[in-house]
Amino acid sequence: MIRVWLAAVVLLGAVDASAYVQSRTKKAEALTEWNTRLITYRINEVGSDDMDFDTLVAQVALSFAPWLEQSCVEMEVVYEGPTAHGADPEKEIGYDKVNVVVFREQEALWLHDENAVAVTTVSFCEGKGGVCDRAGEIIDADIEVNGAFPFAAGDITPRARFDLRNTLTHEVGHLLGFDHTPEEDATMYASAGPGENNKRTLARDDILAYCEIYATIFAEEPVDEGCVAAPGRAPSGGWLVGLGLLGLAALRRRR
What we know:
Layout: E1 2-9, E2 33-34, E3 38-44, H1 53-68, E4 76-83, E5 100-104, E6 118-125, E7 137-146, E8 151-152, E9 162-163, H2 164-175, H3 204-219, H4 246-254
Parallel strand pairs: 2-7, 3-4, 3-5, 5-7, 8-9
Antiparallel strand pairs: 1-6, 6-7
């Protein structure tokens, strides 16, 4: 069965753990991450009220870059253009084979905690078989950004605005299957305030997570044990207060 996991960024979050943390299912099993070297995504055509669409496209691409530039793993992320998909938060977020980044500029369309700056919904398989080679494999991820917060995209971030790359680089970490870390200097730390932009680049904790998990997965040969995974949904994640606690936000929304 395919499940959905939510991750978010909140203005005041904190995490009790040590070193990097993998996102986990309701059964406390770690997600095994994407079993592909090529991830595609699209951006909802409505865009953001805070910048033109071309700037938004560039900012999203730059948010993937710090992860992809690590030499330990060869992965590629491809932008496939604008789409109308993702406009309906109830029907077009979750497992639908479209990885989308969408801004929620209308308050009625934001179905998460009002303090969450962004939320990532990750869909994964509970068992081997069907579309998955292993249990916990990620097969879909969608990033929703809360348009109620003012965003900036320049080299210098105004103190009254949230840096979009700062927020999205964190959310890409959730998309890759990572939860919040207690390391305060890491991109995957649970909170970020207006004016902050240090999460644009990865810290040692983030690089360690990416390299250890993905290098191990791509080195393994999947074994088909004959089980079948049927499409379904489940929650994961964290959200920022600035950046935040996704899992809880998503679970509440799905109930």
